[in-house]
Amino acid sequence: MGGARDVGWVAAGLVLAAGACYCFYRLTRGRRRGVPGLRLRPSRSAEDLTNGSYDDILNAEQLQKLLYLLESTEDPVIIERALVTLGNNAAFSVNQVTIRELGGIPIIGSKINNPNQSIKEKALNALNNLSVNVENQIKIKVYVSQVCEDVFSGPLNSAVQLAGLRLLTNMTVTNDHQHMLSSYITDLFHLLLTGNGSTKVQVLKLLLNLSENPAMTDGLLGAKVDTSFLSLYDGHVAKEILLRVLTLFQNITTCLEKEGRLAIQPTFTEGSLFYLLYGEECAQKMRALVYHHDADVKEKVTMIPKF
């Protein structure tokens, strides 16, 4: 009897060991191509990471679970929640690196193609946070053209449009990728004139980035811009907009001055931004703003070299 009992225990032990090996095999098989680490199957715990109950910064294993869940599910509710969680975590520099190293940027980036506008917005928000990291921008730049198309063709003043503008603004903080927007400058000015206050401010942030780069000066000055642009220099315009359009004028003029081009008549066509900024109507508006009631506005006008 004792021998039979021993044989039984050995058999049970072998079954447990085999089960453990199988579990380890299931966890370690099928590495995602190009991504180090485990390919974790979506589980309830992965979905739980999206329910808002996790306030701490997620670790690499949790982020990998979320990315696999995002890649494998077609449930729009789960996709949106996963993008929000990933976007929130991408606000932390350590996770900006981790998400890139886990191959997460293409997974998140693919969701800007989703017809669901809320999912598209959340994907853009996540990419926006990830784009703070310069190395991430190298991978995100492949989406710039599509984001531009969506921004200019989508609903005016929509959440998706603003999210796209924020991403483009982050992508143009340095000069590295600004050239990718060269063909969209006229569209930016059109959006500036047609959008509401929030849209105007976001477009101006983007234009200010471009205006600091001398390599973009000709593209800005040559853009076809409606004459209503000069109304942004009226004294009653909201301060957050007025200061930014004055700074735009200042940056462009400074670039021209540094290159010794203020005294030379550039070859820009009529109807371009150049003719608006350096025409008599704009000069009159600048002279009037010298007497503006706000000290910051008055100071900004005096900082423009021509005035």
What does the model show?
This protein is mainly α. The protein folds into two domains: 127 residues, Leucine-rich Repeat Variant, CATH 1.25.10; 124 residues, Leucine-rich Repeat Variant, CATH 1.25.10.10. It is elongated.
Keywords:
307 residues; mainly alpha; Leucine-rich Repeat Variant; 2 domains; elongated
Radius of gyration: 27 Å
General shape:
elongated
Tally the beta strands.
0
> Percent range for helical residues?
55-70%
The number of helical runs is 17
Which structural category do the helix and sheet elements fall into?
Answer: mainly alpha
Helices and strands in order:
Blueprint: H1 2-28, H2 44-48, H3 60-72, H4 76-89, H5 93-101, H6 104-109, H7 117-130, H8 134-140, H9 144-153, H10 159-171, H11 185-194, H12 197-211, H13 217-221, H14 239-258, H15 273-277, H16 280-289, H17 295-302
Helix pairs in contact: 3-4, 4-7, 7-10, 9-10, 10-12, 11-12, 12-14, 14-17
Pfam families: Arm_2
Domain Armadillo repeat-containing: 58-277
GO biological process, one term: negative regulation of intrinsic apoptotic signaling pathway by p53 class mediator
